[in-house]
Description:
Blueprint: E1 2-6, E2 15-16, E3 19-20, H1 24-35, E4 39-42, H2 52-59, E5 64-66, H3 74-79, H4 84-88, E6 110-112, E7 115-120, E8 130-131, E9 134-135, H5 139-147, E10 156-159, H6 176-188, E11 192-195, E12 203-207, E13 213-217, E14 225-230, E15 238-245, E16 248-256
Parallel strand pairs: 1-4, 4-5, 7-10, 10-11, 11-13
Antiparallel strand pairs: 1-14, 2-3, 6-7, 8-9, 12-13, 14-15, 15-16
Amino acid sequence: MKILFISDLHYDLRIFRGTDQSKSWDWLLMMAEQHSPDLILSCGDWGYAITISEFESLLEIAPVLSIYGNHENFMTLKSIKNLDKNITNSKYIDNSNNFKNILIKESIIYEFGKLRIAGINGIVSLKLKEKEGVPRKNPKQFINSAYNFKNKNIDILLIHETPYLPFLFHRIDKSPGATSALNSIKIIKPKLVLNGHMHGKCFNYYQFDWNTKYLKVDSSQANKCYAIIQINNIRKALSEIIVYKDDNVKFKFNIMF
């Protein structure tokens, strides 16, 4: 079983800081076709240019599960549904009804093969309920979402808000968002945290004291980074995670689900 993980595609029809973001979608399709995953996971920030018709070309390759970030065409993203043929014919999806919408609901644990996947949407803001149509959470709401998954044996947790890890991110502030994200990881203690939001490096990796492993990637055209999670279908057997920058392998690590 193979999973493609991306975050912060930022598909927009503009040049941003010297990077042509309009190329993001074709690049993603090329990577997805090349690896032919069974599932695509995203930590959000798809960008403002996504359309339902374009997204269906990605869904022809594999079903998608995604949280939303803070740079989204939110109304369109909420409307996108996985193709029935992909979720009903998948040998890994037991309850296809949960997979109809690509956006993750925080009340649901998604089962894909032997994996238990959960997500916390959005970022924290003390002042705004939403910005450009994208909802924000206050710290209490963010933490309450984490308690949904406490002691629930979560294999993979998707979050967009970056946890406070100053030894990884030297410019990160000890903000309500960063501390909420870190505390949520401590509450849930998943086997693997997948993250985005923080730009700069292609990827960041860390292992917490309680053995949760953390991976952030930047899939924007500035870095073109993504990961392939190659799952061993036997429970309590090593699986491999490979981080790529375009076609080049940048990092590998093993994990036991």
